[in-house]
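pasting for ref
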Amino acid sequence: MAYCIMSDNYVKVQLEQMKSLGEVGEKREGVDNEEQVPASSPSADPPSITISSSDASNTSITSKQRGKSRSKLAKDDKNSSGKSISDLSLHGSVVSVPAGKNLNRLGQERTLHIRGTGKILQGKAESNGNYVTIQPSKNIPDARREESLKLARKRRPVTVDTAKAKTSLEALKISIKQLKWKEFPLGRRAPCDIYWHGVSFHDNENIVSGQVNKFPGMIEMLRKINLSRAMRTMQELFPDEYDFYPRSWILPEEYQQFSTQIRMVKEKDATLNPTFIVKPDGGSQGDGIYLIRDPSELRVMAGSQAKQAVVQEYIQKPLLIDKLKFDIRLYVLIKSLEPLEIYIAKEGLTRFCTEPYQEPSQKNLTHVFMHLTNYSLNVHSGNFVHSDSQNTGSKRTLSSVLYRLAAKGVDIKRVWSDIIALVIKTVIAVVPELKVYYQADIPPGKPGPTCFQILGFDILLMKNLKPVLLEVNSNPSMRIEHEQEMSPGVFEYVPSPVDEEVKVGVIRDTLRLMDPGLKKPASSQPRAERGEEIPMEAETPARSPDDGALPSLCLKQVYPKYTKQFNCLRLVERTAALFIRFLGVKGNMRLGPTAFRTFIRTCKLSNSNFTMASVDILYIDITRRWSGAVPDSREAGMGLQAFVEAFFYLAGRRFKSLPLREQVLSLLELCEAQLESQSSVEERRSLSCSRAVSRAAKTQTPGLGANPQLNSPAPLRRAASQDYRLQQKLRPRTLRANVEN
C-alpha cells in the first residue's frame, strides 16, 4: 500500500512496494523520448513524473535531483516559500511540483506517470484531505498513445487536395486559409480528406477515399437535352408543379413536331408570333445561342450531321431594373444523394444585360446584349460596368436587388419561397439519373469517395415575379477576378469584390459542411407541412469549436427540411430504384433483355393479355427508339429514360381508368409489394435453413466426444446417417428456391 502525505507546503509520497520501479527508473533515466507537456519550471532536464487530474488540470513534475536522500528533501522543504512543493522523493528520485494547484480538492483524481517504469499511478484525495491512495494502472505507452491519438483527431487540420481546382483555385485558397486547414496544391501521395476538382469527378481516377466535390455523371445529366428530358418527364406527372420550365423541343429528333406545332399556333391566331431561343446541347457561356421566330430560321445543320440542340419558348416579359433585363445566379449545394440533402446560398449574383430591353422583333433578334444575360457575352460590351459596389454595375449581389424590390413593395418572402421550391423540384428531377451514374462509378461495396457538388442555377424573374429556370450549370464559374482592359489591347485580371464576397463564402461554408470531423445532428430537421409557405429566414447554425470568428453559414438547408412538402414528387426516383435493382452487373447502366424479363416476371406484370412475347416486343421497340435518340450511347440495352417510358406504358395498361400520376404510383406500389414479399420469403427460407443447420450441428461428431458411450462405431454411423438425411431434406428446397428466382 502506498500513501501520499500532504501538508500546506509539501507532499511526501511513500511507496513501500516500488523498490524495483525506482531501480528501473534510474537505469532508463534520460532514455525515454516521449513527448511531454512542458512544466512551468525552466529546467531542461527530462521529466520523470506527470501528475494529471480528472478535471483536465494537469501538473507536470520535473526531476531535478535524482539520487538525493530524504534528509536533503526535508531540509529543502523547510526552505520552501510555500508557493510550490519543492521536492518530492520517490525511492531516490526527487521531483518538483509547480504551485498554484490545490492538491487537496476532495474527490479529485490524480495520476502519476512514472518515467522509466512503464507504470501509471493513480490516486484520489480522501475526505480528511491528508491522504491520496496510489495504485498501479495501465502501461504508460498505451495511455500516451491513446491520448496522442485523441489529440491528433481533435487538432489535425483537414487536408484538401487542390491540384485540379483550376479557375476556382483563388477562392478555394482563401477559404482554406480562413478555416485554418491544410492545402496540398500539388497533390499528395497519402489520402486527403477533400479533393477539389475543377471539371468533373474523373479529373483524378485514383481516389478511393475522402470526399470529391463532383458527382459522376453530373456534367452529362445537366446538358441541355438531358435536363429537358428529365423536366419533361416530371411535367407529364406533375404539370402544375413543373410549370417553371419553358416548353422545349429537342433537335433534330423533334424538328417535325416543333414545326407542326408552331404552324398550328399561327394558323389558329395570326396575330401570335412567338419567339424561341435555340441552345446548343453542349454549349456554355452563351456560345451558339440565338433567337428565332420561325422554324425555317433554325441553323441545325453542320455538314452532313445535325447539331443537337434545345429550342425553348422565349420569356418575352421579364422583370426589368433600370430598363435592363437580368437573371439570377444562385448557388446550390447537393451535400449527398442518399439521403438527399440540398442547401441554398442566401447570397447570389445578378447579371445584367448592357442594352435597354425591348420585346423581340425581327429587327432586334440579333441584339445579344439586349436579350442574353450571360456574363461572358456582356463583358465584351462597351456598356459593361465593372463596379466595386455590390448594388451598382453590370454584376450585383442578389441581396441588393431584392432590397431594391422590397423598397418597391415586392413580397420578397414569396419570391424566395418560389425560388426554393424551383430548386428542390429541379434537383428531384435530376437525382434519378445521377443515382444510376453513381452506382456505375462507385458500386456498393467498392472502395470509393463520397461526393458533393456546387451547382449554378440560372433563374429569370418574370414581370409577375414568377421565377423561371433557364438552365443549371454543373461547373459554375468560381473565379473571383475579372478581365479588364488596362490600356488599348492590354488586358489584366483584377479582383472583383462582388464575386469574392459571394463565391468565397459559398466555397468556405461548403467546406465547413463537408468537414469530416463534423458530427451529424442527432435530431432530425423540422419539416414544413405540405402547402406551407417556405420561409427564407436566417437561422442560427451550430458552430464547431474551431469556427472561431467565422461568420454564420451562408448556406441554408432546404431538403430534407421540407421533405413532407416535396416527397410526393419522387416517383421517378422510386422507378430508378427498380431499374438499379435489376441491372445485375455492378457498374452497368443499361438493362438487357433478360434483366427486363426478370423484372416483369418478379413483379408479376405479365398475364394472358400481356405475354412474355409482348414483353420482348416492348423492349425491342423502346430500346431501338432510344438508341436512335442517343447516338453516342456506349452500351447496348435499355437506359433509365427508356425504362421510365416502358414503366409508364405498363402502368397505363394495368390501370387504364386512372390519370398518369396515379397509374405510375399504383404500379410502383404493386412492384414494391411484390419485391418485399419475395424478400420476406427468402428471409424465412434462409432462417429455416440456418436453424436446421444449427440443429444438425448439435447432433454431429463434435458433441460425441463429451459422451464416452458415443465413441463406438455404431453411434457414429447413426449420427452420420442422420446428418445425411437432413442434408437430403434441405437440398430440394434450396433448388426450388433457385428455380423460382
